[in-house]
Amino acid sequence: xxxxxxxxxxxxxxxxxxxxxxxxxxxxxxxxxxxxxxxxxxxxxxxxxxxxxxxxxxxxxxxxxxxxxxxxxxxxxxxxxxxxxxxxxxxxxxxxxxxxxxxxxxxxxxxxxxxxxxxxxxxxxxxxxxxxxxxxxxxxxxxxxxxxxxxxxxxxxxxxxxxxxxxxxxxxxxxxxxxxxxxxxxxxxxxxxxxxxxxxxxxxxxxxxxxxxxxxxxxxxxxxxxxxxxxxxxxxxxxxxxxxxxxxxxxxxxxxxxxxxxxxxxxxxxxxxxxxxxxxxxxxxxxxxxxxxxxxxxxxxxxxxxxxxxxxxxxxxxxxxxxxxxxxxxxxxxxxxxxxxxxxxxxxxxxxxxxxxxxxxxxxxxxxxxxxxxxxxxxxxxxxxxxxxxxxxxxxxxxxxxxxxxxxxxxxxxxxxxxxxxxxxxxxxxxxxxxxxxxxxxxxxxxxxxxxxxxxxxxxxxxxxxxxxxxxxxxxxxxxxxxxxxxxxxxxxxxxxxxxxxxx
Length: 504
Fold this sequence. Notes:
This protein is an alpha+beta fold. The protein is built from 10 helices and 32 strands.
């Protein structure tokens, strides 16, 4: 923690034995050995520090005092004067330093055998700020998000934040953190984000997965309510104020996968699952790629997305196929090419007749659009009411180039001449003439495929620089910047998106 995260931290406990010999902990503040007995470690047995650990424990306690006294003046004074430091003095100093966010106490334990849980919870009480010691800021929506400091007392108007959702067996369970005021069962509360008013049907206090029904809850508490339709990050008030809590910071997703259900008839369950996961977890996004028609899920990493695909399978019994998202390539041309195409069709009744002449050329790099159509015809070789149909035909032809069927961009089409027939010419005839003319001259314009290139920023320990840069080169990347940040190297490079799938 000190080397990598640059934290001012020290251990407040040391383990007795490691890994399978792990028996308990020594509390460095109180200088007591703790062992956890009973079926799930619920009985804490305290005893004296084992004699073979005496020296090690005193060293570690001295280190703890040193680190805390660097950020706390009162303790530093006692430490420099070599006064004996009592458990209560040390506790008070750790609390002051932790609340001031200058020091981070480190706890030990093993969740598997439930060892070290009680001291950790005591540490939350001993060292972390109580709700009145932190300043919570709300944003007043009536006064263009002016910051308001909340008192944190039950006396004020109700302000609560829905920070977590869970599908329970009785419908959606919403966890609320109450910042101010009182919430009672049967009260009406208002969702500030949507403006809806709802009645609180049932209020519960959670003990891991057990629920205890309660009638009311006060500022500073965390409770859960049933049957409230909302998203995580919504704020509820009693309707007298219009505050929103600054919502939790949601990072942009870094990893995307294409998913689709294997069987056609499970589409309903599949979209139900995706909608629910999006409501529960703001870092999980679902989108539809308009070009490929694939459903794309995005999240914070491969494991994050794997878990959701697994949950779709487990909770909704839908087998989903996961793949790499289709990369949207583009096509473009590199040189000018002429076209002259006559489209005529004679079958009983009115025929079709349209002739278009002109050229296509690449747009200059500073052009504004991706497609330009110029009509350079002088006179009435083609009646002006057919010109929009010709433009439409060319636009349609540009939707899929003949190389790999992706849209063509950075192209200018200039119409110079043509011919029409008084009876047989129609909008359809000219539109088709334009489509065929484009296909006829496209290969002569030496088309190329363009691929999306991403700007990638990597931060990694310097000792891996060779490996990482070698791998970037393998993925056809171009390194454009290289910086040092402490022990880390920051590399900025441009890499084709197609080669970045699954990179992290």
